[in-house]
Design goal:
With about 80 residues, this protein is mainly alpha-helical. It is about 65% helix and about 0% strand.
Length: about 80
């Protein structure tokens, strides 16, 4: 759907078609996010003291949570910058 809007949206969506090189760059950047997400998620899961990825945590654990730089990065990258 995104390709159709960008390539054929024209005046309706105020877009201009991208070249094949530009689409390749967009695809490469998007695909690069997948292994980055997997690496950050694996790192966060490995550093999780519970080892269960959050399952079985009590309500006291949430109050004692102190974010690490890696948790902060994950939050900013994958949950939105603002």
């Amino acid at each position: 759907m995104q390709v159709a809007i960008v390539q054929f949206g024209g005046v309706v969506f105020n877009t201009h078609p991208l070249s094949l090189q530009q689409w390749g760059a967009c695809t490469a950047i998007a695909l690069g996010a997948l292994p980055l997400r997997a690496l950050i998620t694996a790192s966060l899961n490995a550093s999780d003291s519970g080892g269960g990825g959050g399952a079985g945590r009590s309500s006291n654990d949430a109050a004692a949570f102190k974010p690490t730089w890696l948790g902060w990065m994950e939050m900013k990258l994958f949950r939105g910058l603002f």
